Amino acid sequence: MASHPPTNPHTANSHPTTAQQSPVAPTTADTEIRTLATPASLGTPDATNTPNAPDASGTPNTPDAPATPGKWLPLLATCLGTFLLLVYATIVTVALPSIAADLHAGFGPLQWVVDVYTLALAGLLLGMGSLGDSLGRKRLYVRGLAAFTAATLACGLAPDAQVLIAARAVQGVAGAAMFATLLPLIGLTYTGRDRAKAFAIWGAVAGAAGCAGNIAGGILTHFLSWQWIFYGAVPLCTATIVLSAKVLARDVTRPTHIDWPGIATFTLAALGITFGFIRGGEAGWSAPSTLLGFLAGAALLVAFVLVERSAARHPTHRPMLPLALFRNPAFNGMLLAACVYYLSGFGFLPVLSLWLQDGAGLSSLGTAFVITAQPAAFFATSALIGSALHRLPARWTLGGGSLIVGLGDLAFLVTAPGSSWPALLPGLVLTGVGAGLVSPVLPATAMSSAPPSHAGVAAAAANSARQLGLALGIALLGTVFHQSAPPPAPSPTAHAHALHAVFLLAATLALTGGLLSTHLLSRPDHPETRSPAS
Q1: Residues 461-501: pLDDT tens digits?
Q2: Are 409 and 506 in contact (CB under 8 A)?
Q3: Which of 156, 250, 413, 481 is the most buried (most CB within 10 A)?
Q4: What is the pTM of this model?
């Protein structure tokens, strides 16, 4: 699960109140993530190359300031926070078998250890930007870091799976607060070429965090214990809090309406649907608890639509996600591609980690190095042709990338009862390449599919769709694997059959979603939502 860096820092500069994210297995920052911003900031044109145009903070976008001692300390503070946030989206993947053995956790709780972090990011990222406008981005970032530190320590001290899941949920909430403020804080601190350089460095750190998470998780679990994947970060978290409080610029707060009902209904709807998938694998699809989860999720999703409609009609309220955006086929195609490529490209990684260690007999360290083939392929694709992808139609990059992810899922079908890790490399490389085609252009496509006043919200919605797709992928694909190879000791044949079922479903979803998103992205924009830039 790799973290993916932004490839267009000037785009981030255009919308300084937005922030970037990434994934559970793939990190949560694989592309630029923009959170809800104030109306004035969402439509700000790119002023990077305009000498005295105002920037995010309302100050002139002057040439680079002279070099001063400590000039790059604010960037260091935000990069450290980014690294911590994205490492913990991936670091638990390789440690799952050790966690299961130590805490006597079943397959369902293990899914929640990964999924609850992603759900918190997906459900809260849209609203945290508005909260940052009201509280101040530095204040929210530092408070998020403090909560993240406490939750990380609690994860290491967890005596059972339930406490670990609760602590991971707090990590996700705190991570959403951090992610919603990272890029705006960089935009408030640097101007001109310094800002472009800062965004580029931030993106490189975000990309490295995904690979570091898998490898660090394998090393710490192999030589120490799974608890040290949490204990080891506490001193770095503490140092980051101290540095951030000292060097980050305090921004001006702007009291804004926060769509609490929208945030609550959206998050609880995602939680209910994901619970239904996970519970279905444990208790059966007709079990009362499974049906209750799906019904509650569906009801809350309807409530979310009603809440957003009501907020749109209110003269002083601002909906978390304007429903008018869904009238644009390109916006819907973008959301579909964001969801399916994450679901099908990374949702299987927890299952794959379990198979590599329990079925193929690899150590946690060996598993980490095998899985790293995927983020390495992603990073190489984005680095080599990322800039050229922006010149291609979105249906080729988003739709085509999703189709390549589907082909990568099909490549995993070569696994047989006697197979080991080399059989997985073609699939890992192909899914990494497909994701590397989608991620660099997703933010720009999201923003161009909406009018300028909603560009930031559209990009944040793309990130939420990606994270929600990952959470559902982990739940759905994990459930399929669990039912096909039930514990405690499935045979090699059952393991291979379970992997085939997982990857066949993932491939079907990726290929179907890729074709449909290609069709939607080929249709003209709805006249009410067409972006002037397009």
Answers
A1: 887 788 788 878 888 888 888 877 766 666 777 777 888 89
A2: yes
A3: 481
A4: 0.73
